[in-house]
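ugh finaly. both done.
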Amino acid sequence: MAAAQGVCIHHIARGSPDVKRLAKFYQEILGFERVESPNLGIEVVWLRLPPVFTLHLIQKDPESKLPETPWNASSAVVDPKHLTRSHHICFSISNYESFVQTLKEKGIEIFENTQPDGKTKQAFFFDPDGNGLEVGNWEPAMQ
């Protein structure tokens, strides 16, 4: 038996040199809602994707000694075709075709894939800070 019980994802945090720009992207592209954010002495924006998932956008530490990678860079630097399996957040969406068309209209470079079942479609892309994202036409998880 696992040590933790009743586990579910509470939030994912992303550092950004421009928190407001990144928040606008997640609100316009994926429909996140802005919620009350704490005063941490640095710029933060908390976003929620109903019913419970939250994304915490936090001002990137300019003194950070972490190396620049495609996943913490200040801009998207990698072709979505090469987005690694282990560095992305995935969302299930019900309007896959129109959503992908919207990404294209906004000039967001995507890589599409269809699973061997011939039904499951996926699109890979990056947010403005180079964080990998995936959307797919899976059925939403049951609560």
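ok and the 2nd:
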Amino acid sequence: MAESEGGIMETVKTVVWALVIAGIFRTLFFQPFWIPSGSMKDTLLIGDFLFVNKMAYGYSRHSCPFSMCPFEGRIFGSDPERGDVVVFRHPTNGTDFIKRVIGLPGDRVQVIDGVLHLNGEPVRLTPQEPFEEIAEAQGPQGHVPRCSNAPVGAGGICAKERATEELPGGVTHSILNIQDGSRGDNTPEFVVPEGHFFVMGDNRDNSIDSRFPQSIGGVGFVPAENLLGRADRVIFSSAGQRMIYFWTWRSDRFFRAID
């Protein structure tokens, strides 16, 4: 009986230590993150799996699970660069979001007729071939994509207008447009406060981001202490509703760098 109890205790200790080590790794180094929605298409697709680099911007209370780190502000902190794809804790509802940093402290940000303006100047846009995907349920939540060529029947080709957007400093990335005149296509001019950032999704008509205030369910400005880390590379990707559906794996996205 004593030997049996000793074996149980050793198993418990092993599990506890494994959880402690995993918690330390997740807090200090890399946090796993699944892409649940299409707000960052075509940079990130529903079902992409990545590790968030927790070392990139330092640490805050939000770096620990349940925001339990026992300190205020940031330690070992550094600011993201314009164009970084970041994961952050929503300022009010506690959900983890992933978006692209568009505005830095002091920047003036505005969208006019669907074109991003920074500090009074429109960014350069270069048209690309449309982004195409199958009109079908995607991911565990079964999201059906919105299409610029709607209506599209199930199994049809869902298209979105695509362009390359060039930010000041030369950072380029793809953005998508579903329709003109969406509610985020024309905004007031925002001035980014000190210690905050302005973020947007690359799928501009399908993203809840800093263009929309928290009072109506948006994100607003993101405080620096809410940054969890930088997304650098897709590790794994699956187009299906379950990871075990190997026939839905997107092998061309494995270990793909995030631009």
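summary for the 2nd one i guess: The CA atoms of residues 16 and 22 lie 10 Å apart.
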